[in-house]
Write a structure and sequence with these properties.
With 65 residues, the protein is of the alpha+beta class. It has a domain of 36 residues. Helices cover 25% and strands 14% of the residues. The protein has two helices and two strands; from the N terminus they run αββα. The termini are far apart.
């Protein structure tokens, strides 16, 4: 399932990181903004950091030996 299809079917709020910009359509009604930790807009920071569950799509901190 594509991320766009997942967010459309579930209706959950969608945020990206600066590195993930372009991975989701920012014109959808469920798009909440770009999360950049302390550099985020206060509403985005609060929404992300107070979430009970976060789905992370993509690569993050993956190391291989």
């Amino acid at each position: 399932m594509e991320v766009a299809e997942f967010t459309k079917l579930t209706g959950i709020a969608t945020f990206t990181t600066a590195m993930g910009k372009g991975s989701v359509d920012e014109d959808t009604p469920t798009f909440g903004g770009v999360y950049s930790g302390a550099g985020s807009f206060s509403g985005v920071k609060k929404a992300v950091e107070s979430s009970d569950l976060i789905f992370w799509f993509g690569r993050y901190g993956v190391r291989s030996s």
